[in-house]
Amino acid sequence: MAEDMDPIAESRRQWLTHGWDEAADGMTLVISIMRVQQLFQARIDAVLKPLRLTFARFEVLALLSFTRRGSLPMNKITQRLQVHATSTTNSVDRLEAAALARRQPHPTDGRTTLVEITPAGRELVARAAAVLNAEVFAHPGAAPQDITTLLDSLALLRSGLEADRA
């Protein structure tokens, strides 16, 4: 097999060879997006590793840092980050163990737990955002006009997929 062979193009070729023509473009789209996600995740992991932070924990800290009070109920974090509650619990457990966030009882709802960012969490999320902005987000690997086109296309795709789930 050639070193410069594109595995995604080869997958598409195989789909066509097997007579799955009507699914070939969709399969190519899905695995292309999944590969792009892997590449972005690797870049993000490399940037955050020296800060001892995962992207999931960064997202929780960033979300908390954007709020007026620096805190949110656990279920709001889960909803806003569009993740499973178990993922939120795991991230908050680790942030709490690192003294970057803390759980607090809700002042008026005894059934609700708030997660509050600590001063150390604020400092770390600011550093992490600066590095992510400089090394990943400001230069994601596409020209500005292509980014705009991709964002429009991805918004349509997301909307269609979310409508299918409803």
Q: Identify the strand order in the major beta sheet.
A: 1-3-2
Number of strands: 3
> Whole-number average pLDDT?
95
Spatial separation of the terminal alpha carbons: 43 Å
Brief digest:
This protein is mainly α. It contains seven helices and three strands.
Primary descriptors:
166 residues, mainly alpha, Arc Repressor Mutant, subunit A, 2 domains, 7 helices, elongated
Task: Give a written overview of the molecule.
- The protein has 166 residues and is mainly alpha-helical.
- The protein has two domains: 7-51; 52-135, Orthogonal Bundle (Arc Repressor Mutant, subunit A), CATH 1.10.10.10.
- Helix content is 68%, strand content 8%.
- The chain is built from seven helices and three strands; from the N terminus they run αααβααββαα.
- It has a three-stranded antiparallel beta sheet with strand order 1-3-2.
- Strand 2 and strand 3 form a beta hairpin.
- It is elongated and about 60 Å long.
- The model has no long low-confidence stretch (mean pLDDT 95).
Question: What is the topological layout?
Answer:
Layout: H1 7-17, H2 21-48, H3 55-66, E1 71-73, H4 74-81, H5 85-97, E2 101-105, E3 113-117, H6 119-137, H7 144-165
Antiparallel strand pairs: 1-3, 2-3
